[in-house]
Amino acid sequence: MKKIRMETVLSILLLAGLCLLFTRESRQTAGEAVTGEKQVEATGTVVVDAGHGGSDPGKIGINGAREKEVNLAIAEKLKDCLEEAGIRVVMTRSDSGGLYQEEDENKKQADMRARCTIINEAKADLTVSVHQNSYPAEAVCGP
Description:
mainly alpha; 3-stranded parallel β-sheet; 3 strands; 10% strand
């Protein structure tokens, strides 16, 4: 239980750090003063890559949680946080599916190629790949 809490805290710290990194102070425009609404201007582009997906569940936790689903949930929260800060976000995936075609002979390779294509075409300032790693030795922990 302690290990799960540490991973959750580290994930939240990553999200908060990225939001702070891309948040910039802005002055109020005349239009904002009249309407009372703040205009959010995009300050950059981030690709958020939710690791695994499709037939590749990633690590399966002791509670049955699939890494691909945990990664996607974190990626979606990160997307919301970044967009709220005015950052353009490109997601590599937005559902539990993989980035390959069923007829692809090597699905993992096709998936990785598709991710690289999305990242390159986005011309992003930053790419964040979300994963939950594991190691069988209990002494090994942390990010």
